[in-house]
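Shipment paperwork, digital attachment
Item: protein structure file
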Amino acid sequence: MTKQSLNPPKKLGYSMPAEWERHDAIWLSWPHDPITFPDRVEKVEKIYSEIIKTIMVSEKVNLFVQDSAMKKRAQGILKQCGVNPDDIVFHIYDYADVWFRDYGPIFLVNKKSGSLAMSHWIFNAWGEKYETLMKDTRIPEFINRSMNIPCFAPGIVLEGGSIDVNGKGTLLTTEQCLLNKNRNPQLSKSEIEEYLMEYLGVSHIIWLKNGIEGDDTDGHIDDIARFVNPATVLCAYEENRNDINYPMLHENYEILRSAKDQSGNKLNVIKLPMPGAVGDEEGMLPASYANFYIGNTVVLVPVFGHENDAKALDIIQLQFPDRKVAGINCSDLVYGLGTLHCISQQQPAVGIRYEQEDMKLQK
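Attachment content:
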């Protein structure tokens, strides 16, 4: 049963925590689609094994699989990688693809009561670009059948990768995505801001402009700018003025330099290099070091075999002295047009218990 609420979460004291706040779990979906990962599914499965092995040290892993056969396959691959499959919580559901950040629930916390809730936004496959992926909008409701926590449904389109918060009231997003006519054409900018404030518990919004080349999400923020503490933003930046990404990244950087947080204080903006032109004859892929995942004791950072890999890892490590920064080679994963942050969603730690056995699809 899903606990639906008619009141927006902000009025009830709920808000979206910053990603560096403690987690109970990470949510992922096992890769399987050869269209998403052409000639690379097996390679991406190994990348997932590495991700899970690295992150499960400090947070529980919830893993979606489509059926029992996929579960058995995933268990075998994980075991070969040195992971005990019994330590993974498997959820069997007929999902379409792996982009959990965008279709999964965005978890909320009431810091006064210590309770957990979720928000369930509409996922329309990034402006109805991929009809077969649109069914994944049902996943938050499926998850809540087991968790049975308050669930807030704004009734508008939003993907988790399009927003980033500092946990103190400020949210980052882009005009290219949230103001795109393929998301919520019936809403004005101020109306969208009202939804963000009421359903994510923020009070201040910073609008950047456009995302990077090759990004089919229409400029998700998690490829271009990320909070690493309440006052600091790592901003993807291209130094080469002849690079196709230079104009938009430079513009975003200048906006951030002039921006202020929820208290009127200027932000500390740090440049994060880009990994050069990653792609093939079909075009550039949206490769960015900004698509990292902040875990309890480790930060997973996508790397691409570029000379800037080490520099990016060093910059991120300086921001997280108490966490290990681990580079995950995402040269094959990025062919799906996303990497580590895109495939994951954190569940904040508030002591909520959920089923340890497999959840089965109730038809």
